[in-house]
Amino acid sequence: MSVNADLQGAQYSLETPFDVGREAIAEFARSVGAAHPAHFDTDAAKELGYADVVAPTTFAVIPSQRCEALYIANPDAGIDYSRVVHGQEQFTYTRPIVAGDRLAATTHVDGLREAGGNAMITTRTELTDAASGDAVVTVTSTIVVRGEK
Amino acid sequence: MSDTTARPALASVDVGQTVIDTTIPVSRADLIAYAAASGDQNHIHWNERYAKEVGLPNVIAHGMLTMGSVLARVTDWTGDPGSVVDARTRFTSMVVVPDAETGVPSTPTAELALTATVGAVDTDTGIVRLDLAVTSDDEAVLGRTQVKVRLA
Fold first, then answer.
1. Among A53, A54, A58, residue whose Cα is nearest residue A32
2. CB contact, 8 Å: A86 with chain B?
């Protein structure tokens, strides 16, 4: 099985928006050791000018990886997930994610190439405000699918 | 624990200055907690038998747990969790997290060393670039890690 190069440029969107909740933000913050009270306490977040508790920077991987999975786990993609390693990750924020956000997500297959038996795949997932369409954060991820020995 | 609400002023940071120099312990229990919080429940992050069957030395940490843990220290330093405008990294080496040989599984069996140095200061936009070095067992686990934060 090899990676399907025809999917370069394909895009996949979450069927329903991702609802960002306070408890999910708090649990994620604890799991990465983020200690700032604005992750946990609405009043502390408001003191900094935010509408509600603020998500840690990498919280965006939850909706983005869910959307990327529509591509990666699709049998048409030809990706053997047991051979996948994470290569690179980048977050480019227009504004922070806060509790109460409803995020739409679309993953674009931007780069797809094979080298030395391995496949390198770069996806770009745009997370936007589901109601307004305004940009929130762009998550760019590169995975490497290790070739069969 | 350091004060996470103190906010360093833009005027107080200089290029070349080291602003974070710390270590982050990692336990098998941390991987389980991250798997639950993130939804990334890939077996290689919690099951030793499976990890070895697919050719890994042992259970390894999620790359995103490593990136998330160091970025949490960055936002704790800025005093504003929404201060990151851009963060990028390369995963250059695995963080192996064996089960603790004795005692509770929350006993750390790996450690990350993190230093963050000021790479650039843009006084017009208030954006400061931090260059991060992240190692485990003296080996770089994240490479070319740059974080741009907005300071007041």
1. A58
2. yes
